[in-house]
């Protein structure tokens, strides 16, 4: 079975990050999602085995969010004393309770980080992204969300501050004002990946398999990893065989 070796690791600031990360929407939420097929939430026991498999494959990065239902809480229960073996990113801004709402205020941002730390049973977060709405530029430019994230970073609760954006304007703003950016690798986002490389700003790719609708999984993963600014590609999965296949694709250069 292929696994990531030290040589495969990429640099996120001072951290060594695996080229594939675990996207954990499916760990905690199965309502109002757009995956090809409905699915039951996995049991904690199955997720434990899944995380052990991921670790054995050399994956050390997990992406979650308060908007992913039970994902943060379940990860907190499962990681326990192994939390320090993982790079964890979560998000602020989107609140999901059957429908999505957004709050980018200073107070909500701080409260959201405190809640995420409680759910994840940790006293620091490696990365916190702004979980942008469709109006990403406005979220970042005209609210206090980045100021609040920076305050939590100064206090030592957050290592790196980023934004998960949707538009070119939002992505460019995030490149100029945060430590890293999460975007898709869809063709309209490529200028951001190029600019990120010029600025030496790390990027993380979300939804690399078009939410499960990619016709060529291997090509999608290899393409996303081919951009030099990309430090990790976050693939959503709760299937061990898919996970192993994805590592095989990522290491087949
Ligand atoms: N706004 C944001 O910040 C934002 C938005 C979207 C996503 N994200 C992040 O990005 C992550 C990934 O996005 P995503 O989960 O929406 O979509 P994705 O990674 O593009 O696709 C996930 C889907 O692909 C399937 N899959 C994975 N590997 C496969 C393989 N080898 N062969 C066949 N099918 C495979 C998964 O099913 P199985 O479970 O059966 O493997 C799942 O249904 C999320 O989990 C989240 O962490 C962030």
Mean pLDDT: 97
CATH third-level topology: TIM Barrel
Q: What small molecules does this complex bind?
A: NADP nicotinamide-adenine-dinucleotide phosphate
Which structural class should the secondary elements be placed in? alpha/beta
- Radius of gyration using CA atoms only: 17 Å
Counted beta strands: 12
Explain this structure.
The chain has 253 residues and is an alpha/beta fold. The protein has one domain (6-250): TIM Barrel. 38% of the residues lie in helices and 21% in strands. It is built from ten helices and twelve strands. It has an eight-stranded parallel beta barrel, surrounded by six helices. The chain is globular, with a radius of gyration of 17 Å. The model has no long low-confidence stretch (mean pLDDT 97). The site of NADP nicotinamide-adenine-dinucleotide phosphate (NAP) has 26 residues, from helix 1, strand 12 and helix 10.
Question: Helices and strands in order, then pairings?
Answer:
Layout: E1 10-12, E2 15-17, E3 20-23, H1 25-28, H2 44-56, E4 61-63, H3 71-79, E5 87-92, E6 94-96, E7 100-102, H4 106-119, E8 125-131, H5 136-141, H6 145-154, E9 158-164, H7 168-177, E10 180-183, H8 190-199, E11 203-205, H9 217-226, E12 230-236, H10 240-250
Helix pairs in contact: 4-6, 7-8
Bound molecules: NADP nicotinamide-adenine-dinucleotide phosphate (NAP).
